[in-house]
Amino acid sequence: MDIVKGNMGWIEVIVGPMFSGKSEELIRRLKRAEIARQRVQIFKPVIDQRYKHTDIVSHSGFELPSEVVTNAAEVFEKVQPRTEVVGIDEGQFLGEGLVDTCMRMADAGKRVIVTGLDTDYLGRPFDPMPRLLAVAEEITKLLAICVQCGNPAVHTQRLVASDDLIVVGAAGMYEPRCRRCFEPHLAHDRVEAKKNASSGVASFTPRPVTKSE
Ligand code: ADP
Ligand code: ZN
């Protein structure tokens, strides 16, 4: 982006499914800001406890120290006036206040970089990320590789049985899948299969509906 006058803040959003490289890209941008001697602060939600408590860590092992917060308001409280670049990982877990917090920090002249899942385990827009995309200056959408067929993957497939919106987990609980291989009903079917198994009813997993049906 070409900035013509100083103290101009803005919002960059990096979205995509799990394993698409969002954390890696965030770490790359923040490391470059540090090389440029800019004052950087990095935040991540307390809910993301894979690997370490205080670092943002990519699946490939890149890491950067961060401050842990429970919601977006806490980011606003902890951000220092002198900070020039604010990085936020896993923004979808910071609640509805994320958009307002990012707007206020950008209005105050900061470069704000946020990563997050833009869709949930059913493939629906995952609030508040879609609203953040609407007010961002720059959007990067990354894709992973579908573990079933090798095509570009836009979806995060939940493999464990749960109908909850948020089930935190990493490898083994989720995998990236392309549009064709994505089975949004899989997690729900496994919940039903578990219920039936415990009530003595023979477990039955419905055949996935294919495009031609
Ligand atoms: P995100 O933050 O989007 O979950 P990360 O930055 O943590 O992603 O991890 C991205 C890295 O995960 C890739 O660079 C690659 O090394 C690794 N990886 C493992 N499985 C896959 C996959 N199926 N598709 C793409 N990358 C994968
Ligand atoms: Zn596929």
Descriptors:
single chain; 213 residues; alpha/beta; 6-stranded parallel beta sheet; two-stranded antiparallel ribbon; 5 helices; 22% strand; binds zinc ion
Can you give me a brief rundown of this structure?
Helices cover 24% and strands 22% of the residues.
Describe the 3D structure:
There is one protein chain. The protein is α/β, with parallel strands linked by helices. Helix content is 24%, strand content 22%. The chain contains 5 helices and 12 strands. It has a 6-stranded parallel sheet with strand order 5-2-6-7-1-8, sandwiched between helices. Helix 2 (72-78) packs parallel to helix 3 and helix 3 runs parallel beside helix 4 (129-135).
CATH architecture of the domain at 10-142: 3-Layer(aba) Sandwich
- Uncertain stretches: none
Relative helix content: 10-25%
**CATH fold description of the domain at 10-142:** Rossmann fold
* The first-level CATH class name of the domain at 10-142: Alpha Beta
Question: Strands of the biggest beta sheet: in what spatial order?
Answer: 5-2-6-7-1-8
Largest sheet: 6 strands, parallel
Q: How many E-type strands?
A: 12
Amount of beta strand: 15-25%
Bound molecules: adenosine-5'-diphosphate, zinc ion
**End-to-end separation:** 46 Å
Whole-number average pLDDT? 88
Name given to the CATH homologous superfamily of the domain at 10-142: P-loop containing nucleotide triphosphate hydrolases
Shape: elongated
So how many helices? 5
Tell me the radius of gyration: 19 Å
Could you spell the SSE succession in H and E letters?
EHEEEEHEHEHEEEEEH
Secondary structure category: alpha/beta
